[in-house]
C-alpha cells in the first residue's frame, strides 16, 4: 500500500458512476432459473473490459493516485442504485434462493438489553423518525433500483464467483498497465454485511456470519494473490446501530459487533495488512442520519480490524467534526487513514481550498504520510456522473494545494 511520502495521495471509496452503455447492458441481461443470477455474454464481457480500461485512464487524468475498477463488475441496471456493493455477492454465492423474505420490507424486530437484534431496514430509527420524508418520492432520499432481488440462505453457502473475480482482477490489472499505474484496489463485501439477508439454514446468526467469512475469504485471496489491494466494504459496523430498535446501549452494541470483527479477521488471516483497506460508513442514502453512532464509540473497534488502511466518512454534515477523534486516538504504527474529503451526500462540489483544509486537519493529527484523501462513500449510483467527475477533480486539486503547504 502506497503512502504519502512526497505528496498527499488520493483515492476514493469504490463505486463510480456506470456509463449509460454499461447500465443498459446490465438491464438487458437475463436471469438464470434461480431468478436472481445475471447471465453474461462475450459481448457484455468485452464491453465491461473496455469500460474499466477507460475508467482507470479517466481516474488518472483527474489526479487519482490509487484507482479501482469503479465496481463496474458489480451489476447496476439503474443510474440510481445504492445497493450494488452488496447485491453483487448474491451472484457469487451458492446455497441461496428467492423466498418471500425481504430484509428491506420485513416486519419489525425488537431488541432488549443484552439481546441486540437487527430489525428490518424499513424499521430503522432514522427511517421511522422521518417517515414522511422517507416515503415522499420528491424528498431525494429514494434508494433507486437494485439489479437483483434479495435471496435467502436455504442451504450451506459456498463461493461460486471464481470466474467473476478472475475477470474483475484481469480487467483492473490490464487497465492499470495501460495507464502505467502501479497500484489499484477491488472492493469486496464483509461477512457482517453479507449476513443481513434471510437465513433458513444456519441455526444461529453467529454460525451464518462465520459461514460468510469462509465464503468471502476466497474472494479476498483472489484479489490479494493477484497483487492488488482488497477493500473490505463493511457499513454494518457503524450502520447496524440505526437498525437496532429500540436504541441499545453502546456497550451492548459493541458486544453485538465484536463477532462481526472476529469473523472478518478470521477471513483475512494470513493476508498481508498492507494489502487490505477497510471501509466504514453509516450508509450512503441521502437521509437525515440523526441516529448515526458517533465515531468516538467506533474508532477502537475499527482499528482492531486487520487492515493497513481505514476508510471512513469525514466530509458530510453529520461527521465532518469528528476529525478531532484522532487528537485522542493513536493511529497504530504503519497504518494509514483514508478519510472522506469530498462527499457523496451533496450535489454541491467542494471548493479545492476546503478540500485542502480538510486534508491538512487530518495531517496535523496523524502525520501527512499517514493520510490518503478519499471520498466519503461510493459516488456511483448516488450522484450524477458529471458531478462525480467534478468532485474527483476538486479532490485532486485540493490534494495538490495541501501537498504544496505540507511539503514546503
Q: Please, could you describe this protein's structure?
A:
InterPro entries: Met_Synth_C/arc, UROD/MetE-like_sf. GO terms for molecular function: 5-methyltetrahydropteroyltriglutamate-homocysteine S-methyltransferase activity; zinc ion binding. This is 5-methyltetrahydropteroyltriglutamate--homocysteine methyltransferase. One of its GO terms (biological process) is methylation. The protein has one domain: TIM Barrel (Alpha-Beta Barrel). Helices cover about 35% and strands about 10% of the residues. It has helices at about 20-30, 40-60, 85, 125-130, 130-135, 160-180, 190-195, 205-225, 235-240, 250-265, 300-305, 350-365, 385-405; strands at about 10, 95, 150-160, 185-190, 200, 230-235, 275-280, 310, 335-340, 370-375. The strands form two sheets. The chain has a seven-stranded parallel sheet. A three-stranded mixed sheet has the order 2-3-5. The longest helix is centred in the C-terminal third of the chain and has 22 residues, at about 385-405. The mean pLDDT is about 95.
Task: Determine the fraction of residues in helical runs and give it as a percent range.
Answer: 25-40%
Tell me the number of structural domains: 1
Number of strands: 10
Lateral strand order in the biggest sheet:
1-10-9-8-7-6-4
- Summed up, the helix count is 13
- Report the β-strand fraction as a percent range: 5-15%
Specify the structural class.
alpha/beta
Major beta sheet, specifics? 7 strands, parallel
What radius of gyration results from the CA coordinates?
Answer: 20 Å
Can you tell me the CATH architecture? Alpha-Beta Barrel
Return the average pLDDT rounded to an integer.
Answer: 97
Distance between the termini: 24 Å
Order of helices and strands: EHHHEHHEHEHEHEHHEHEEHEH
CATH class: Alpha Beta
What best-fitting shape do the alpha-carbon axes yield? Answer: globular
Stretches with pLDDT under 50, minimum 5 residues: none
Question: The CATH topology is what?
Answer: TIM Barrel
GO molecular function: 5-methyltetrahydropteroyltriglutamate-homocysteine S-methyltransferase activity; zinc ion binding
Keywords: Methyltransferase, Transferase
Pfam families: Meth_synt_2
Protein name: 5-methyltetrahydropteroyltriglutamate--homocysteine methyltransferase
Amino acid at each position: 500500500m502506497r503512502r504519502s511520502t512526497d505528496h498527499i495521495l488520493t483515492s476514493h471509496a469504490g463505486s463510480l458512476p456506470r456509463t449509460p452503455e454499461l447500465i443498459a447492458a446490465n438491464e438487458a441481461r437475463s436471469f438464470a432459473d434461480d431468478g436472481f443470477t445475471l447471465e453474461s455474454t462475450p459481448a457484455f464481457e468485452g464491453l465491461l473490459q473496455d469500460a474499466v480500461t477507460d475508467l482507470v485512464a479517466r481516474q488518472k487524468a483527474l489526479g487519482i493516485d490509487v484507482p479501482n475498477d469503479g465496481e463496474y463488475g458489480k451489476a447496476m441496471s439503474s443510474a440510481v442504485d445504492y445497493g450494488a456493493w452488496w447485491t453483487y455477492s448474491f451472484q457469487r454465492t451458492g446455497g441461496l434462493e428467492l423466498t418471500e423474505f425481504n430484509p428491506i420490507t420485513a416486519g419489525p424486530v425488537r431488541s432488549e438489553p443484552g439481546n441486540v437484534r437487527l430489525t428490518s431496514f424499513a424499521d430503522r430509527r432514522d427511517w421511522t423518525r422521518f417517515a414522511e420524508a422517507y416515503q415522499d418520492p420528491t424528498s431525494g432520499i429514494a434508494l433507486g433500483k437494485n439489479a437483483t432481488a434479495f435471496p435467502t440462505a436455504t442451504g450451506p453457502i459456498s463461493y461460486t464467483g471464481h470466474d467473476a473475480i478472475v475477470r474483475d482482477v484481469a480487467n483492473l490489472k490490464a487497465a492499470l498497465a495501460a495507464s502505467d499505474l502501479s497500484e489499484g484496489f477491488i472492493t469486496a463485501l464483509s461477512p457482517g454485511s453479507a449476513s443481513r439477508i434471510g437465513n433458513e439454514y444456519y441455526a444461529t446468526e453467529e454460525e451464518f456470519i462465520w459461514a460468510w467469512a469462509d465464503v468471502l475469504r476466497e474472494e479476498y485471496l483472489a484479489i490479494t494473490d493477484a497483487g492488488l489491494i482488497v477493500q473490505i466494504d463493511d457499513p454494518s459496523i457503524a450502520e447496524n446501530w440505526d437498525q437496532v430498535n429500540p436504541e441499545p446501549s453502546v456497550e451492548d452494541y459493541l458486544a453485538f459487533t465484536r463477532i462481526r470483527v472476529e469473523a472478518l479477521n478470521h477471513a483475512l488471516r494470513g493476508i498481508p495488512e498492507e494489502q487490505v483497506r477497510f471501509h466504514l460508513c453509516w450508509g450512503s442514502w441521502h437521509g437525515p442520519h440523526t441516529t448515526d453512532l458517533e465515531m468516538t464509540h467506533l474508532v477502537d473497534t475499527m482499528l482492531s480490524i486487520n487492515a493497513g488502511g481505514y476508510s471512513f466518512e469525514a466530509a458530510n454534515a453529520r461527521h465532518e467534526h469528528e476529525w478531532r477523534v484522532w487528537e485522542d486516538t493513536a493511529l497504530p504504527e504503519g497504518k494509514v487513514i483514508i478519510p472522506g474529503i469530498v462527499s457523496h451526500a451533496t450535489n454541491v462540489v467542494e471548493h479545492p481550498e476546503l478540500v485542502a483544509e480538510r486534508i491538512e486537519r487530518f495531517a496535523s493529527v496523524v502525520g501527512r504520510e499517514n493520510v490518503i484523501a478519499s471520498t466519503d462513500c461510493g459516488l456511483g449510483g448516488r450522484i450524477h456522473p458529471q458531478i462525480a467527475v467534478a468532485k474527483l477533480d476538486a479532490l485532486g486539486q485540493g490534494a495538490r494545494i495541501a501537498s504544496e503547504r505540507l511539503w514546503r
